[in-house]
Amino acid sequence: MALARNRRRERGVDYWPGFVDALSTLLLAIMFLLTVFVLAQFILSREISGKDEVLNRLNSQIAELTELLALEKSGKQDLEDTLATLQSSLATSESERSRLQQLLASGAGSAEAANSRIGTLNQQLDQEKEVSARALSQVELLNQQIAALRAQIAAVEQALQASEAKDQTSQAKIADLGRRLNVALAQRVQELNRYRSDFFGRLREILSDRENIRIVGDRFVFQSEVLFPSGSSDLNPEGEVEMAKLATALIDLAKEIPAEINWVLRVDGHTDNVPLLGTGRYADNWELSSARAIAVVKFLISRGVPANRLVAAGFGEFQPIAEGDSPDARSQNRRIELKLTER
């Protein structure tokens, strides 16, 4: 009776590995979404950094033009002050000339001196008029330069506004791209889950109803003893029969999955934690688990499964599904897992 109870306990369904695998799938999907988000953020940061460089360059140009405008205004003010001084001096000279002309009219004795003084004043007046004309010409030139600087500043500000508007448009496009990627990812995951369910349903029907062939979460699990002799990566006859059934199901499935879904069947090899100690063909459990996964893949290819739809991976003893060193735990950990996933 104790032996019967032990057998019933061995045949009990262990839901915990399935829960762990489902949680792992969810974490992988979240990691993929985070990768898409980081990629979108990277593209956005590249766009923003480029816009920042343009904005900094435009702001630098505005600062330089503003400084030039301030210098031109300062020079204009200096010339206007000089012009005002010259005009005041001109008015004084004209007043002095009028006074001397009056003196000349009032007395002939001082006519010669007055004429000399008037001649001197006329020369000074002509010089001051010439200086005043040059100052007016410079003021006009400065006015033209200031107008040109203002036009340049207006053009730079317009370019800056256009750049900011384009930057906002780019950010909106990147946000929309992220939303569309998330929607597309969700749709692909749902489609692949549907085909995975159909695939596992077919495997249940065509594979032998045995305890050492089972579904755990989103993976189909073969105990190594079904496929390989102990310590070997050569498929035994019983394993070849089971893998031939698997190949038939895969070929049928490949005809149904749409071409836009880039799916693969991942074959994972796992061992227990007993060291090989270099006593056989393989130096350690890494080599043994990898060799077994590759053997399954090569057999499936020989039966017509497209090679580009298969992936082989070895995990050694480092991904156990049962803890402990008991014979039962080690038996569970020696396994080949099949997982239908996207590339």
From TrEMBL:
CDD domains linked to this entry: OmpA_C-like (cd07185)
InterPro entries per UniProt: Bact_OuterMem_StrucFunc (IPR050330), OmpA-like (IPR006665), OmpA-like_sf (IPR036737)
Stated name of the protein: Peptidoglycan-binding protein
Residues in OmpA-like domain copies: 216-343
Superkingdom, taxonomy of origin: Bacteria
Chain coiled-coil ranges: 76-166
Regions crossing the membrane: 20-44
PROSITE patterns, sorted: OMPA_2
GO cellular component: membrane
Keywords: Coiled coil, Membrane, Transmembrane, Transmembrane helix
